[in-house]
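If you are new to this repository, start here. Below is one unmodified record pulled from the training split, so you can see the exact layout before writing a loader.
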Amino acid sequence: MSSDTSKKRKPKVIRTEEGKRSRHDEQEGRYYNEEGELDTRDPRNDYELYKETCQDLQRLMAEIHDLKTRGSKDGAAEIEEKKIQSCVHFMTLKKLNRLAHIRLKKARDQTHEAKQKVDAYHLQLQNLLYEVMHLQKEITKCLEFKSKHEEIELVSVEEFYKEAPADISKPEITVGDPHQQTLARLDWELEQRKRLAEKYKECLASKEKILKEIEVKKEYLSSLQPQLQNIMQASLPVQEYLSMPSDCMHKQYEIARHLPAPLYVLFVQASAYSQACDKRLVVTIEGNVEEARALFKPTEESQDDESDSDAEEEQTTKRRRPTLGVQLDDKRKEMLKRHPLCVTLTVKCKDGSSLNLTFYFLMNLNILTVKAIITPAFELSTAISAGDLLNPELILSCLYPGDDGNKTPNPANRYQFDKVGILSLSDYISDLGHPYLWVQAMGGLHFPTDQPQPAVMADNALSASHMEKTINLLRSRLLSRFSLHRQFASLEHGIIPVSAECQHLFPTKIVSRLTKWSVITYEDYIALPYTAEVVTYGLAKPTDQYYSLMIERGTAKLHAAVVLNPGYCTVPPVFSLFLNWKGERSSSNDENIRVMESEINVFYKELHGPPPGYQLLTNQLQRLSMLLDVYLETEGRDNSVEGPHEFPPEKICLRLVRGPGRTKPFKYNHPQGFFSHR
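And here is the target side for that same chain:
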């Protein structure tokens, strides 16, 4: 067995360097030979040959495996033969593998060459596109180019040919050539500017001359000032004797320079109105002038002072820190800080009473507020129901309709309040004053609604347009409140005062009498069952004042609730009636009660009396007493009851009832003295 294997074993070949080189040359030649052979071979045929070779190789391996498994001695030669055939197939596969690699290399080379050509073409395309873009930019620059002469506003062509001399305009050349025409117009512009420059130099020389003259006159005037002051000091007794306090006015105007813009506008316009139209209006400035001057110091000095003060505070307060609540209180105080100066208007009346108004400016909120003080000319009688008539906090309420002064008119303040935790300005009004809209108008301030305006300028025209009307309303409000105060004092004693000018509005004899007059609250008013319609139609508001009264005659009791608007007597009082006699009667179940309310509320103009109509309320009460007499005297008599009639007819009535509603004759006709229907 060993001898057979030794015979079959091939001798070992030792390869030298020359042998290796010769083998490499053989492979090189074979490679290039196969590369040339590749052109004549079909890849599909090679693929088929590859599959057949693989199948034959598989078959041979299987047969070799079968022969080895059987282990017969005669099969060794057959196995060797099949091995030789398998080696031939392996050689074929290696050749096919080399051919495949050569084909792959050639395909890659061809692809690479094609890609290089594409890259070269793409690079050329990019170069061309860049050149196109560059040319387009240059074209755009050329099209958008603007010369300096386009910024110069030249005279029109017609004016140019009309005013320019012929040696500049050259019409024979420039008319048909726009370029030459533009050059000629630029030459003419240059010529004109040279002339203007010479004129400017002349004006400057004239200005210098005038300034020197002004300086000389200033020196002369400054030398006169001490002499004028001596003359003014010597004339003070004469000014006091002639009631011409020019020195006081001069001091006031000196202080006015330190007022903020809204208060300054208010002071100037009120002073002008006082001098021109109303001698009973006194305007003064009050407050700390030194603090006001300190507000106008330069910012740099104030910053230095603040830095020094901050350093001192840091040294003194290193050991303690303010709590959050203290910080918020400090921020609120700073937010609601008033200007050190204020303007006071004293509105005097003919009877000697006066209304003192003090106007403040809240610097951070940029709004004006006002406080009022009432000075009567004589001692007022005590009247319980008149307690709120002369209340300084309420006397100015609704001077204009809807202006109650309980909220800020500046929309920007809402955002400022949110930062420092202020819910509403009404909590601080007792200390700061009321920010009425008419106060802002007198200071020239106007705030657009629902638009925050952090900086609003004071307008003199706005202040002037509101000054006269507002002063007249203030004086009328004061006089009407004094008149109501006197009337209430009589009404509480059951006396309805009727002036001599209004006696003709009523008959001589009125039996019904006022027995009760008292003040009630808004909540009490809306709780009454016979005032529902007035509340429903919005005629009763929380800013109004409410009163209750009762008029009696015999067993009949007429109750009434009165709504007194702050604008009395321009806005008349509103009466709601309720009669307690033989049952409960009101406008909802008795047509005549409704007619009585109409006589009082609708036909109130008949009861105004002499202007300005301060007697309207008492005239309405007197008419109400008269209407109750007519109602009771014209009521049908109950024949089942014996004895005299409770309300004997004392009024002359042409007709007792009329129409399906059986209305009574409530209209009094003077001087005939009878009652009729309207």
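Two things worth knowing about this chain: The radius of gyration is 57 Å. Confidence is low (pLDDT under 50) at residues 1-22, 299-304, 451-455.
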